[in-house]
Amino acid sequence: MQMPEPNQTIISQRDALAQGLRQIVGKDWVISDDAQRRPYQCDGITAYMAMPLLVVLPGSAQEVQAVLRFCNEKGVKIVPRGSGTSLSGGALPLEDGVLLVTSRLCNVLAVDEHNRVARVQPGVPNIKITEAVSHLGLCYMPDPSSQLISTIGGNVAENAGGVHCLKYGVTANHILGIQAVLMTGEMVELGGAYLGAAEGELDLMGVLTGSEGLLAVVTEIAVRLEPVPEVARVISMSFASVEEACECVGAIIGVGIIPAGLEFMDRKVLDAVSVLIKEKFDDRTAALLLCELDGTAVEVDALVGVVSDVARGQGAIELKVSTTEEERQRIWSSRKLAFSAIGKLCPDYYCTDGTIPRNKLPEVLNKMADMSKKYGLDYANCFHAGDGNLHPIIMYDAAKPGDLEKAEEFGADVLIACVDAGGVLSGEHGIGVEKRDLMTHQFTEVDLQQQQMVKCAFDPKDLLNPGKMFPTLCRCAEFGRMHVHNGNLRFADIPRF
Amino acid sequence: MTDTQTTASMRPATTQDVADILMDAASRGEPLVVRGNGTRAGLGNPVAATRVLELGGLDQIDFYDPDDLVIRAGVGATLDEVEQVLAQKGQYLPFEPPRYAGLYGTNGARSTLGGAVSTALSGPRRILTGAARDFVLGVEGVNGQGDVFKAGGRTMKNVTGYDISKLVTGANGTLAALTTVTLKVLPAPRAEVTLVLPAATLEEDVALFARMRALPLGLGGLARRVNASGLCELLVRVEGTVPGVAGNQQVLNGMLATRGGMVVLEQEQSRALWAGVRELDCLNAKPDELVWRVNLPATTMPAFVEQARSAGCINRFFVDWAGGVVFSTMRGVQPEVDTLRYRKMAEKAGARATLLRAPDAVRAQFGAFPPVSAGVAALAARTRTAFDPAGILNPGRMTVQA
Ligand SMILES: Cc1cc2nc3c(=O)[nH]c(=O)nc-3n(C[C@H](O)[C@H](O)[C@H](O)COP(=O)(O)OP(=O)(O)OC[C@H]3O[C@@H](n4cnc5c(N)ncnc54)[C@H](O)[C@@H]3O)c2cc1C
Ligand SMILES: Cc1cc2nc3c(=O)[nH]c(=O)nc-3n(C[C@H](O)[C@H](O)[C@H](O)COP(=O)(O)OP(=O)(O)OC[C@H]3O[C@@H](n4cnc5c(N)ncnc54)[C@H](O)[C@@H]3O)c2cc1C
């Protein structure tokens, strides 16, 4: 993984820049010494590190504007950061760039119970929104596993998903309005605090969502609130083969049921987890599905019956259905502990998130087994089966020379297999630096150029989070010139209309 | 209805033909009207162009994978056909795309999928299941230089590059001539009933809507209209599994008992009723009337409606999305004056007023879509340039030149 060469001239101006920024945000909120900058060197991907030139923590949207205006004038790059849980290196700092951290922008600004909207600042951790409205019987639906820590601003930037987005949708489906600051310091308000507030102009809010901090810094978000479902029950279903478990996923959806969540865990994950939860799984079990159903009590009871029948028909060897909230929590604990359990099995692991059509699950999982042999690295599978969002966990040892590179190649092969199966490189973690160089496998040059042209409309100087998402830097001026060349007609000899 | 100066239309059958037409037009800087079959050509501002690029010929269904809840089709596939294909597997387009054929005096059977995505119109179910933008997974299209590009994909989740699919949804043909779209579909609810009850005041009704929506009752429609006998009534659509609907209906019976006079419409009757709501039939818009859509917070709706009615800006109206949208007619006597007044009123209330139907001259002068701030307008203009540097795709459809 290579990043653009840092600009030494900018680096040499560090002290002056720090001084200028202190005038904007106050002296305590610009971090320049080594010890305090160190925790910001990486995000959720610890394999990639860089020391940010400076770390700035603005205390208001106006300060964000002023910081961006200042950096834009000086030609200094900005990397936005929420809590730094990104699993694609989206918040990886640049040595010649300012890391703009939103952790001081952490207020729920307003809750509109009647219209079911909350206005929040970007640094609010996802869970805090639900906590602020739970006394009203409401919640904010998207629930990434990182929800205790990850910020709503980071969720918007990565269009985060979660276990319940199978039924309720991802972040983009729950955002009604965004206030954002462009690199020039100009503020734009998109949509608003009600359904339909964005009608009648280009869906700029839609393109900002999932733009990984490359288009603008989000300074306020209006999110939809939903009533908390009356009951939720989970069914744990064991299968003697991975194929049967995968086929059961399609079968459940095929009968017209969209579960609230539908998760897959393979035997390796179960073995790792059983140590932690001190519970044994049936020896015959090769894969386990967790299927959550929610709604009103009568409805859920009926759905539990239907799904159980489907699972038995698909060869499930054991079914456990939660009857109380404690049981539900206990059954889910295996899934929640999965990643930390695997973490105890190996010095390091690496997890990607390619997404495929659901019916390609068996095919791609089989390919993974072959890749594991090829690279001599062990792996485990624990993923959002309901929406075909894979999370292969590749185990390696960073202390062993060459192991990280092998793990990366293994991960890349999995992602390529996903694209070849009709899927995409990322379902919820984003491209960042991690999957950047694979973009050409999914998109043609024209596709990528069209995307980069959008970047030019927002950030023509390419100062916001450059080096992420695209394998090449944006050359806005050049794109402009290319338009002129394109005047000559392709296929000039075929008949015109 | 609009774009009346057009003299010739081109109806390509393949993406490559579309690309050739656009490259040719771009080389001469010739603007084009882009449309599906033109059934909703009256939506948006008139476009000053002499030739039409009609995409209705791209009407194949590429694949439909019911177990994976996904369909990909050419933009010219009709909504009727797509919905029929889905219905055979018990599935549907959850955003309930309106045709508005009655409004524009066109043939709704020819309304295309591409038109539904490009206009991003969503029906009454939006409050429960989402809008058109929430179901577009991927697109293929041709930009204003004749370059064929694709964006998005066919999987349920995707954060691979910018979400260009959202950007082109609702762009009304201004960014690209779309050629195929990939949509997420859902199993249609097995059961539906509609409870019809007498309306009270707008304030009381909106408060009642909110009380009902505070519970997870699967309400796929909450509207208030004047019925054929001139009576104001509330429509409450309950959807879901058979036991779920029965249970939720019981809860609602309890909540609504004090109102009295409730009538229950079962399955087929309920479907027919909401198809009419979706098409704004109950507005009974007369040919010379203007038709408006105003999006606003439900809580501010009653005061806004009262004010607009007494100012003569609303003639007849009905309310959908649990109070979050008002559809209304306006007398066509002094359309310029009233349009300006109504827009100002909406702006003051923090609402977005879209002129769904009006004479060409009115839309050309005031714009069919509500104005946005100068900053957003400039950003949108730069974004359009990123797709269509020569400005040949439906120029002016969404924006009024200052
Ligand atoms: C244990 C664990 C579990 C996870 N589970 C899930 C999961 O279930 N689903 C899922 O989708 N993801 C998951 N993630 C990934 C990650 O939590 C999400 O991507 C999350 O949205 C990142 O939020 P953050 O605040 O940490 O953002 P950061 O990591 O700080 O930043 C992420 C990206 O957002 C940009 N950004 C941040 N704030 C802003 C802003 N205000 N304006 C503009 N750009 C901004 C950054 O530049 C960067 O590109 C998980 C991560 C971990 C470590
Ligand atoms: C065939 C027919 C069609 C009619 N169509 C309309 C019409 O399109 N618009 C109209 O204003 N009246 C219409 N009316 C008249 C309407 O039904 C009532 O008679 C009238 O609103 C009652 O007025 P009011 O002064 O008693 O109550 P008001 O105080 O005017 O209204 C009581 C409450 O009902 C609301 N309200 C009144 N009329 C409507 C309506 N049509 N839609 C939604 N909410 C309403 C008001 O905003 C108020 O909150 C129609 C009558 C007939 C017979």
Automatic annotation (TrEMBL), chain A:
Its cofactor is FAD. Keywords: FAD, Flavoprotein, Oxidoreductase. Pfam families: FAD-oxidase_C, FAD_binding_4. One of its GO terms (molecular function) is oxidoreductase activity. Residues 48-228 form the FAD-binding PCMH-type domain. SUPFAM superfamilies: FAD-binding/transporter-associated domain-like, FAD-linked oxidases, C-terminal domain. InterPro entries: FAD-bd_oxidored_4_C, FAD-bd_PCMH, FAD-bd_PCMH-like_sf, FAD-bd_PCMH_sub2, FAD-linked_Oxase-like_C, FAD-linked_OxidoTrans_Type4, Oxid_FAD_bind_N, Vanillyl_alc_oxidase_C-sub2. This is FAD-binding oxidoreductase.
